[in-house]
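Example record

One chain of 74 residues, shown exactly as stored in the release files.
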Amino acid sequence: MLIIQIIIFITSASAIWLVSRKEDWRRWGYIIGLIGQPFWLYSTFVNEQWGIFLLTFVFTYSWGQGVWNYWVRK
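Predicted structure tokens for this chain:
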């Protein structure tokens, strides 16, 4: 479970840092954020953190919107 927590930390911190940048490579933050979501879902499900588990679906949708707007629709 430690590896899951490390992946969550790296993907979440990197994604937030990237999307807050002004440069064009900020769009990578949405990809990294989306990559981290399965680990969030797994961790919150296994630990029965139902509120955060449901919130993770909102975050997944939000990261997905960023991917759509900055990668697909561009």
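Notes: The two ends are 37 Å apart (CA to CA).
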